[in-house]
Amino acid sequence: MHKTHLLCCVAAGQHMNSTLNTNCTIKALSFSFLVDGVFQIKELTIDSLQNILKWFRDHFRYTENKSKKEESHFSDMLSSAFSLQESSVESVFTYILVCLLRSIETVSIEVRLCYAINPVPLRPKNLILSDKQRERKNATKIKNKEDVVKKGDKVTDTILISSDDEDVIAEPYSKSSGKKQRLRQFWLEVYFPTGKRWVYVDPVNGKVDDVSDIEKHTCNPLLYVFAFDNKNYVSDVTKKYNQKWTEREFRVNRVNEQWLQETLH
């Protein structure tokens, strides 16, 4: 079940990334914004990337409106977001910046769409528990859900999920001043040939090359982050964003590394 869910998510990521590269309407909408001088760059630098990100956040607005009805197909949502220059969906907001960067003609820019995936547990023990074990598990789950950790004005809810050897506490969302904050699933990376490295870009929060708090806003534990490049190749970049990737808990909750690499390539 874990592998199936994981592969479905990877396939969905490839489909989304492919659409960004091939959909004629989306490409036309992207080109229509490139007349601004901020996109007329001869060389990609951190400063020029930050200028583009600032322009993007000035001209496109991200509004977290959970009550907004979403279109049936994400390409329709993306076209609508381009026209309105705003989106209430994190993924769509990220797609727009990916499209704009990939459409720049004065310099070739390699952009990877990053997707944090949290599939069902690798060994979901709670599916085969006896009645008494299930009752104890549910009691523990309720207790942990009622335990609220308060730090200043920030309150974090916790949910119990099953892992290989022990129960791991996951944080599906956090509350700040009484407002729920969604977990981050999408961001992007831009390749800098001079330093031969991929630079993290967060369009929602306006951050460049700063991954210091990424784990606080993604699923916990962060088991999989996949990056989809201009040619729709997939790379596992989880180790870049999870500082605990060397720990046993990280390894036992993921699929076999050799199988994963062979499957992706």
TrEMBL record:
Gene Ontology cellular component list: cytoplasm; nucleotide-excision repair factor 2 complex; XPC complex
Molecular function GO terms recorded: damaged DNA binding; single-stranded DNA binding
Gene3D superfamilies on file: Transglutaminase-like
Pfam families named among the record's database cross-references: Rad4 (PF03835)
Database matches in InterPro entries: DNA_repair_Rad4 (IPR004583), Papain-like_cys_pep_sf (IPR038765), Rad4/PNGase_transGLS-fold (IPR018325), Transglutaminase-like_sf (IPR036985)
Superkingdom to which the source organism belongs: Eukaryota
TM segment ranges: none
SUPFAM superfamilies in the record: Cysteine proteinases (SSF54001)
Annotated Rad4/PNGase transglutaminase-like fold domain residues: 171-264
PANTHER family in the cross-refs: DNA REPAIR PROTEIN COMPLEMENTING XP-C CELLS, DNA REPAIR PROTEIN XP-C / RAD4
Name under which the protein is recorded: DNA repair protein Rad4-like protein
Originating organism: Leptotrombidium deliense
